[in-house]
Amino acid sequence: MWLKGQSLTPALIGIILGLAQGTRALGSLFITTRIKRSEQLMPASRLLALATLLTFAGFLLPQSLPLLLGLTLVSSLLYSPLMPISDAMATRMVAQTGMDYGKVRLWGSVAFVLMSTAMGYITGLWGSQAVLWCLLATQLLMFVGTLPAMTEPLTDGPKARPALPWTQLLKEPMLRRFLLIIMAIQGSHAAYYGFSVIHWERLGISAATSGALWSWGVVVEVLVFFFARRLFNHQSAATLLSLAAGAVLLRWTGTAFATELWQLVILQSLHGFTFSLAHLGAIRFISKELPSHYGVGTQALYSALALSLAVAAMMLVTGALFDSLGGLVFLLMAALGLPAWWLARGLKPLSE
């Protein structure tokens, strides 16, 4: 919406957002993996949060296309490592203190729902420029949040080995298996992220109802995170990812053929499995089933490959086929559940 307010055509907006998505993957791989010890995570997040804030402030300047593109690429590069770094901090706290990851992570989902809803009202009152001011305000809050010292300092211990580079991690067969599983599961959401509202509109569902369906999916996501320890504490990553892959098959096959609102409500409930359970399985594998010096690099690979590149690649595929296939494009997303389920059955922990 803000880019449109800068008088950009839809084609240029698509190019800029596509380049930003690719740059985010590079930031996760090449910046996050420079962190070698858990003690460096908080200082790195503080520095990146400040650098991102200053880059976002550059959007306040009168914009030309070269400046807009440059700021977008730099901000994407600096911002993207903050997610894998925060998850690496969380997985370290899971191992170090037994923290309930789900009850911490759910607040990200709650904030997403609240801010997405609020932005609709804010932009309605003050226009697209409000997007930038809200972006600056929330990024400032992020930076301020990195300033206080942690009551439980992150540490790998005196005998810990330094983090392995991601290029070396990719030589480990079981780690490659994990990445293929999670790329298939997370990549299966591409049609949902890109075209679900358009598909539902063709079924006669209003934009407001589509928004409610999205929100319901996130509500279920929050519930799964809240009850995760009680329900799944003793389950392996392989079990959690197998369940998520099965839900991919069920959810997207149903979405391809569903025509009634009540059917979509039920199918949206599976977001708690296809996304939340998959994410919990990934965090379980990284925090409890890998050697500690694999953690930061694997977190970076998960963010770059599964949460960025896999979704971007499948969005290109679904975008090319959506006009001809319509809702049946969701069957391609469902098909990704099969290899994910088969590979997840053989996923095993790696010892120190």
UniProtKB/TrEMBL annotation:
Transmembrane stretches, start-end: 12-32, 44-61, 67-85, 106-124, 130-151, 178-195, 207-228, 240-259, 265-287, 299-322, 328-344
The name this protein goes by in its record: MFS transporter phenyl propionate permease
One matching Pfam family: MFS_1_like
KW Metal-binding (keyword) present: no
Parts forming coiled coils: none
GO cellular component terms given for this protein: plasma membrane
GO molecular function: lactose binding; lactose:proton symporter activity
InterPro entries in the cross-refs: HcaT-like, MFS_assoc_dom, MFS_trans_sf
All residue ranges annotated as the Major facilitator superfamily associated domain in the record: 2-325
Keyword Cell inner membrane in annotation: yes
Subcellular location: Cell inner membrane
UniProt superkingdom: Bacteria
Keywords: Cell inner membrane, Cell membrane, Membrane, Transmembrane, Transmembrane helix, Transport
Alphabetical list of SUPFAM superfamilies matching this protein: MFS general substrate transporter
UniProt topology in membrane: Multi-pass membrane protein
